[in-house]
Amino acid sequence: MTAAVCQSPYDHALTLDEKCSSDGLLDHLRDVARSNRCKAHIELFGACAALSTNRNIARHAAAEVLVRCLSQALKHRPAFYRVGEQDTSFDEKWLIALARSLKNGDEASAAFLLNSRVPKHARRNLVFLLRNVADSFSQV
């Protein structure tokens, strides 16, 4: 007889620190985007306040809120490819470049990337969410 294993959606968040490759963040965001593509619309501004105080749950929740609200910040639905796909979309390249510049403290590059695509009112929340997600990866 086979036993069924019930996993919560936050079980994956517990292993984020173990990922060291530069593709780890992208694959994580792709996975979260795939699992959330049919969920209801949420407001970017209010969603940031709803994050949990539990670090592991907050990391996964930040990634989920990020991919669900990214279309509000970009004014179009971002393209995310399947996990493990060799090609990367322009949206994925832009998001990884922004995460890398935030993680490395390169404020000039981060400001350029944000100013090129994100309206002023959404920048702070987008940076908060992306920093929250990127900080759980040793390399971006």
Task: Describe this structure as you would to a colleague.
With 140 residues, the chain is mainly alpha-helical. The chain is 58% helix and 0% strand. The protein has six helices and no strands. α1 (23-36) crosses α3 (55-74) and α4 (90-104) runs antiparallel to α5 (107-117). The model is unreliable at 1-21 (pLDDT under 50).
Largest sheet: none
How far is the first residue's CA from the last residue's CA?
42 Å
**Number of helical stretches of at least 4 residues:** 6
Radius of gyration: 15 Å
Mean pLDDT score: 77
Number of DSSP-assigned strands: 0
Quaternary class: single chain
- Number of self-contained structural domains: 1
In N-to-C order, the SSE pattern is: HHHHHH
Proportion of strand residues: under 5%
Low-confidence segments, ≥5 residues, pLDDT <50? 1-21
Helix content: 55-70%
Shape: globular
Q: What structural class is derived from the secondary structure elements? A: mainly alpha
Helix/strand layout:
Elements: H1 23-36, H2 44-49, H3 55-74, H4 90-104, H5 107-117, H6 120-134
